[in-house]
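Chapter review: from sequence to fold.
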Amino acid sequence: MSEKQTNYVEDLLTQLQNELSRDVLSEEINALLRKCSLNLVTVATLPDMDIKPLLATIKHLLTSNISYDTLNYDYLLDIVDKLVPMVAFDDVLEIYGVDDLIEALNSGIDPLTVAACKVIEHCQPKGLFATSNIIDILLDILFDEKVGNDKVTESIEKALEKLSSDELIRRRLFDNNLPFLMNVKSRMETISFVRLIDFLAVEFPFINGPEFKAALFCFTKDEVLKSVDDILVFVELVNYFTKLLVDIRNQDKYWALKNVKKTLPMFAQLFEDTENYPDIRTFSKNRLLQLFAEISRIDEDEFSLFKAIDKDFLKIGSETRLVNEWLQLIDPHYLIRNHKALVKDYFHISGYSMEILRNLAADEECFNAIRDKFDSEIILKLPYLEQMQLVETLTRFGYSSKFLLSELPKVMAGLIGEGSADAIVDLETTHYRNSALRNLLDIGEKNLSVWYEPLVREYSVAINGKNYSKNGETKIADDYIA
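The token string follows.
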């Protein structure tokens, strides 16, 4: 950030302050707002400017009884969003006090509500409003079915997410407001219920074990079954449980699993009961498959949870039209331990098997079970894009990279041989080839042995258009090519 740029932005904001203070707004006001917004991202502070008068002017415009049809309020609110973090929050409160924020939230005027949320989300400390009823009002608006403006609900969700790292805010949300949230949940009104699901998905990463309210964050089998009456709600629940499982694994929150896993078999049961629930596969097949994929990655007790679901409902391998999906999505370690024959018999090299290969290759034991399927002649008959997709997949892991280098020299020649780059006609192929070259170079000169020099040459040509090989022109490792 240069002093010149900072001065330029301050001059723009001074001009904006003057233009917004006029009795009649200029026809160019929106262009100026947009220009200010774009340039504000280039600075972190504005040391030589008092921003409070501009924020006060914007507040006056938002609270005025006069509505300016030509004024783009989205641009105006974006300015607020960018300016508030640049000012000490005590100074912000001089303009947008607690009473002002409450009045704005209760006004029913959408731009004013959004502006209040933008101020609230930047409050410091984050727990500042935990003892006021601002948080309660935000929840009231968020779960009001009559509020249909997405910008309002999104701004509330964002504000709550920004503040929820604070324990006092979480206490206000999930202790003080637990009866209110439980009431929203029990009503299962489509709009408010879907918003609740989204809200809980955002909040769960902040929750620790003692704060976890299973009655709120978990859904019973009966609630899942009832949601089928509204397929939108059902899909949202599927997405919610999928994200929950990802967070449980990534954040090591297995303390929540004992409550969550009670409901998971219900989704598999509905998925398989196509006679009574035909809409489930029609409208939510892909979402459910993603959920099952996440369940399969819960490896507690030798995948006992998913093993039971598979045995009782999914019966992987018994329905041939889903074999591709299972091999693409289900944890490869589970597959090789429980469906080894399916893995070995079904996988083969083709342009249609790339997604399957990416999944199966991620587990060494699984990869070893299919390595005899890699025939150089078959691979080299693939279109060059598909060759590069296959090679790039093999370079993602040490064991498969070693296999590529030692067992598939002709395929390596296709990656780095003379004229190989000329086969590239699109950016996608370039991406896969460059990624493969980079992955291989990452394993080091010692492991690459005679392949090191050709790889350095090809990667430098691919990235820089020049040959930086230290020994001049290099050749393919002919001794390795059968």
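Two observations follow directly from the output. Confidence is low (pLDDT under 50) at residues 469-482. Residues 360 and 383 are 22 Å apart (CA to CA).
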